[in-house]
Design brief:
mainly alpha, two-stranded parallel sheet, 14 helices, 67% helix, elongated
Length: 286
């Protein structure tokens, strides 16, 4: 099989896997995610807009989602539930593995992980922005409602909306930049978690992958909450834009570029390890 045929086969496998995934009953989890977003992000932003008497910026809803202390742990957990049976290793997949070679099948699974992660990120972005439309307007800068909230209401400095969009965000970057970082960080985090599942499944120890993902999420969230120095050893801290900056000074606590290198580096290493694991992997084995 030539290189062009291998690429086509890998794409076909990824599309077949994606098509099967979008028809899965597991996608009901997306409804659960919407409930969390509405309670944890949309309601606080709407209250902020009501109290300030001015609209919030629509993209602020997605940025708030990616900076919420609770949602940065809950959403990846729900994503893992969505891809809990990844990779499929029975039925027609055995035929793919035998007919196209195991490495091509693994490449197809890696591409599916990319597609699944990208799809969920797009869903989160579109749904969060759509839900805040009634109290927001489309603009590319942070709203006065968010930036001046604690100035107008100093007694409300501990309100949840202040935690969703802290000063570390709007003092350090534009709304467009914050939106881009949020989307890319969430995508890379989802991809990393998926590749851990894939590698552990190829090694015949999928439960270890589930345990590792769970540990990274829970311990990472705790480390970020108490601002432990070792939090930068874990993926979680690298996926939250605001923790990279000081509150007022335009100074990075940890460089954004370093977080991209960290996440991309681990995704590349895990992908390479998945391909290396093809030598020991047996089609159809759990």
């Amino acid at each position: 099989m030539g290189n062009k045929s291998k690429r086509k086969a890998a794409l076909h496998i990824s599309f077949a896997e994606f098509h099967r995934w979008v028809r899965s009953s597991r996608l009901i989890i997306l409804g659960v995610i919407l409930i969390f977003i509405h309670i944890q992000v949309i309601l606080p932003l709407k209250e902020c807009a009501l109290l300030m008497g001015t609209a919030v910026s629509i993209p602020e809803a997605f940025v708030a989602l990616g900076n919420s202390g609770l949602l940065v742990m809950v959403v990846p957990v729900l994503f893992l539930v969505l891809v809990a049976d990844f990779p499929q290793k029975g039925g027609v997949d055995i035929f793919y593995q035998i007919r196209c070679s195991k490495k091509v099948w693994i490449c197809g699974q890696i591409l599916f992980a990319v597609e699944a992660a990208l799809s969920v990120v797009l869903f989160l972005a579109v749904s969060s922005m759509a839900m805040v439309c009634g109290s927001g307007v489309w603009r590319t800068s942070f709203s006065r409602a968010v930036m001046q909230y604690t100035t107008v209401f100093p007694e409300r400095s501990r309100d949840y909306v202040v935690q969703l969009l802290p000063e570390n965000i709007y003092h350090q970057m534009t709304l467009g930049t914050a939106t881009l970082h949020t989307a890319l960080f969430i995508f890379l985090h989802f991809l990393l978690l998926s590749l851990i599942l894939l590698l552990s499944a190829l090694c015949g120890k999928k439960y270890i992958g589930v345990f590792i993902d769970g540990f990274l999420l829970v311990f990472g969230a705790v480390a970020c909450e108490v601002r432990m120095g070792l939090m930068w050893l874990l993926p979680m801290a690298h996926t939250i834009p605001w923790v990279h900056f000081e509150t007022y000074l335009k100074k990075e606590v940890f460089p954004i570029k370093g977080s991209y290198l960290y996440l991309l580096g681990w995704c590349a290493v895990l992908s390479a390890l998945c391909l290396l694991a093809s030598g020991k992997y047996q089609a159809g084995e759990e």
